[in-house]
Amino acid sequence: MATRKQTKTPVRRTAKKAAVRKPTARTAKKSAPTKKAAPAKQPAARRTTRAPRVAERRHQPENLRLRELSAGFTVNDLERSMRFYIEALGFTVKERWERDGKLNGVMLVAGTCELALGQDDWAKGRHRAKGAGFRLYAATAQDLTAIAARIRAHGAAAEGPLVAPWGARIVSVTDPDGFQITIFQED
Description:
This protein is of the alpha/beta class. 15% of the residues lie in helices and 28% in strands. It has a domain at 71-121 and 134-185: 2,3-Dihydroxybiphenyl 1,2-Dioxygenase, domain 1 (Roll), CATH 3.10.180.10. It has helices at 25-30, 78-89, 144-153, and strands at 71-75, 92-99, 102-110, 113-119, 135-140, 158-163, 169-174, 180-185. It starts with 24 loop residues before the first helix and ends with a strand.
C-alpha cells in the first residue's frame, strides 16, 4: 500500500499577530479553496480494566461503595490478644489507645488490612461469649505452610494448610477469645 507523503509549509512568524478575518461573500469568491491540514496524532488512550463510570448504570438508590473495611474485636485480656496477633500471626501495632495512662485498645495492621482490639469494660457481663458465629477471611500470597508453622510455634492451634470445600488452600486459627480467622492463599 502506497502512502502519501505530506509536506509542511513553513510558517512565517511576525512580531505582531496578524488579525484574523472571517471570510465575507466578496472575499470568499476570490480566494482559492485551501487544503485542510491533517489532524495531529493524539496519544493512545490508557486502557483500564474497570468499566467507565456511568451514572446511568448505577442502581437507584445508589449501592454502598466502600474503600476499606476494618474489624474490631472486644477482648477479655488485651495483652494476651496482642501477643497472639503480633507474635503468632505477625500483625504490627499501628496505633495505641490509652485512657488515664492505661492501654484500652490497639489498631493492628498486616499488609493493607487492619484489625482493632479493645479491652472489654465488662458493662455487658464478664462471661459473655465472644466470637460465636463470626469468622474473618483474609487473603495472602505468602506460603500457608510457613504461616501455620509460625502459629504453632507460638502455642496456638492452626488447622491446615488444607483445601477447603470451595477449592481454596486455607489455614484456620481461633484467637484467645474465640474469634475465628481463615487465611486463604491467592495466586
